[in-house]
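Lab notebook, bench 4. Still working through the backlog of constructs that have no structural model yet. Next entry is a single chain of 70 residues. Request: give me the structure tokens for it.
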Amino acid sequence: MPDGSKKPVSDRLLKILACPVCKASVEIWPLSKSDSGLKCSKCNRIYPIRDGIPLMLESEVLSGENKTEK
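Model written out:
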């Protein structure tokens, strides 16, 4: 993270995580000043990170392919 803040997910964990839908790699994606998510490099789905735990479930998707707005 460029501002020197602690990463929400370790590099080691980030290397093994994959999008549960399309199996592509994910990257840390800023959602706000204090929150981050994991964005899929292929389908652009964004999964939230809550209390340091990535919620990699289709039902938790914040935005991306096939996401309908409520």
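Notes after review: The chain is about 10% helix and 25% strand. The longest helix spans residues 11-16. Flag for follow-up if needed.
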